[in-house]
Write a structure and sequence with these properties.
This is Lipoprotein. This protein has 163 residues and is an alpha+beta fold. It contains six helices and six strands; from the N terminus they run H-H-E-E-E-E-H-H-E-E-H-H. It is globular.
Length: 163
């Protein structure tokens, strides 16, 4: 019976499109996030300093369509669409292990820079907030996401990220 079960399981394993390499250590397996997480909605909310009142909100849908409330600071709403290349790059960045690590490293962090522009990204992977504070450590993937959004939409980003 055990032999029949083993033969049955090995036959099923041969038809699976995802292959798992044998591990010889205790390290966590690497996961290709593009294969396991479909694109999802991404939101950017910004505020100035300790004032938690929202300055602007940008929402990017999985298909690249975006809408922005008060993007230019004029109390108007705007809409548009990322190019396919921009949308692919956005989801590649947000789905990367490096971005996931930045999100984990910043979890629970509080900022106290008076007058700074704070940008909070909300995704299925979690949320991350960065402030335009002097001397603040820059996060390369988060900064790339913010630059992409600023290039593709009317949203403004922190001064130090734009450089």
């Amino acid at each position: 019976m055990a032999a029949a079960l083993a033969a049955s399981l090995s036959a099923c394993a041969g038809t699976d499109a995802v292959h798992t390499a044998a591990r010889t250590d205790d390290a966590a397996p690497s996961i290709d996030v593009t294969a396991t997480q479909p694109p999802a909605r991404i939101s950017l909310m910004q505020h100035i300093g300790d004032n938690t009142r929202e300055l602007r909100r940008l929402t990017v849908e999985p298909d690249g369509g975006w809408s922005c409330d008060n993007c230019a600071g004029d109390q108007k709403n705007s809409q548009g669409r990322l190019s396919p290349a921009q949308n692919d790059e956005l989801h590649r960045l947000v789905g990367s292990p490096e971005f996931r690590q930045e999100v984990l490293d910043r979890r629970g962090r509080r900022y106290t820079c008076e007058g700074a522009l704070y940008s909070s990204l909300f995704m299925i992977q979690g949320a991350i907030t960065v402030g335009d504070c002097p001397g603040e450590e820059r996060l390369p993937v988060t900064d790339a996401v913010l630059r992409l959004l600023a290039d593709a939409t009317p949203v403004e980003i922190a001064r130090s990220v734009a450089a």
